[in-house]
Design brief:
Blueprint lengths: L1 H27 L10 H11 L8 H20 L5 H18 L10 H8 L7 H22 L8
Helix pairs in contact: 1-2, 1-6, 2-6, 3-4, 3-5, 3-6, 4-5
Amino acid sequence: MKNEIIIKSFFAGFFSVITIGILTFLTYKTEYGIFLIASFGSTMVLLYGYPESPFAQPKNIFFGHLTTSLVGLFFLYIIPLPLYINLPLAVGVGVFLMILLNITHPPAGGNPIILIMGSVSLDYIINPIITGTIILLIFGIILNRFVLRKRYPIN
């Protein structure tokens, strides 16, 4: 059992380095824009450490990040309340929608905070949210299914 945990930990960490490394390279060494957000680091834990979790499934990862990011933009641009009110409301609405729509991805719960505090533009939905998440999922499917021979995605 101990060897199994060591191997699982190694591969989760190794594949996280590769995936975040590629997103970092695309962000800082190309002209294509931003591909990284802090919550992608937490996504790595689920995607590579616990791919069997419902929270790690592609539908949850993609739509969880997308939904909470749209909520963050909605509160940033449409709701003219002070930051100390907008932040908790946006997180609460994002969590509510993820659970309601059955697309819960816990790392995405932080996206409204990232978007509102960063005062991002509307383009942020394309890069890094949609593009970055698609890259994460491509790596997740390839590495889990073909390298580790795990059944992923499950649903």
